[in-house]
Amino acid sequence: MTATVLVPLDGSEKDGRALPIAVAFAELAHGALHLIRVLDASPLSRGDAERTLRAVAERIAPTVGGAAGWEVADGPDVAAVLLRRAAELDADAVVMATRAPGPVGRAVHGSVADRVLREGTRAVLLVPPGSQDVHGRRVQLRRALVPLDGSAAALAVVELLLALPRVGELELVLLEVVPPARARERGSAPHAAAEREERRLEAVAGRLRARGARAEVRVVEGGDPAAVIGAAVRQELADFVAMTSRGAGGLARAVLGSTAASVLRASDVPVLLVTPGTHIP
Question: pTM of the prediction?
Answer without folding.
Answer: 0.90
